[in-house]
Amino acid sequence: MHRLLTLIVTLTLLSGCSPEVGSQAWCDQLKDKPKGDWTANEATDYAKHCLFK
């Protein structure tokens, strides 16, 4: 029972994580987000990691 509970909690925590900044998944996720909703940090990171690799 303890192992099952630990597994459920671990999977729940991992599923809520967002992709690492600069990864292909992060670039794709930001590309789908409306540009007006981007923060200044997101725009800078997108340019640095996704456009000018």
Jot down its keywords.
66% helix; mainly alpha; 3 helices; elongated
What's this model, at a glance?
This protein has 53 residues and is mostly helical.
Principal-axis shape equals elongated
Largest sheet: none
Give the structural class. Answer: mainly alpha
Number of contiguous helices: 3
- Helix proportion of residues, in percent? 55-70%
Q: What pattern of helices and strands is seen along the backbone?
A: HHH
Beta strands, count: 0
Point out poorly predicted stretches: none
Give the overall average pLDDT.
Answer: 87
Strand content: under 5%
Radius of gyration: 16 Å
Distance between the termini: 47 Å
Could you characterize the architecture of this molecule?
With 53 residues, the chain is mainly α. The chain has a domain at 19-53. Helix content is 66%, strand content 0%. The chain contains 3 helices and no strands. It has helices at 2-15, 24-32, 40-51. The longest helix is centred in the N-terminal third of the chain and has 14 residues, at 2-15. It is elongated, with a radius of gyration of 16 Å. The model has no long low-confidence stretch (mean pLDDT 87).
